Amino acid sequence: MASPSYLRQLGKKWGLGAPRQLYHMLKLHRTPFSSILDNMFAVLDEVDGFFAFPTIAAIAGMKPELVKRIHSEGHEVASHGYNHVRYPMISPKERARDLLRSLQVFKKLGIKVSGFRAPYDNYTDDMPDLLEQTNLVWDGGFGYRPEHREKTHFFHATINGEESQVTYIPLNVWSDDLMIDRRRMSPKTVSKVLKREVSKAALSEGVIMFDLHPIRMGQKEYVGCLREVVEHASGLGAWCTTPEKAVKYWNTHSKWKSDSKFCLLLTGDIDNWVFSDYLRRVLWNRSTW
Question: Which domains does the chain have, with CATH numbers?
Answer without folding.
Answer: 5-119+127-141+151-283 (3.20.20.370)
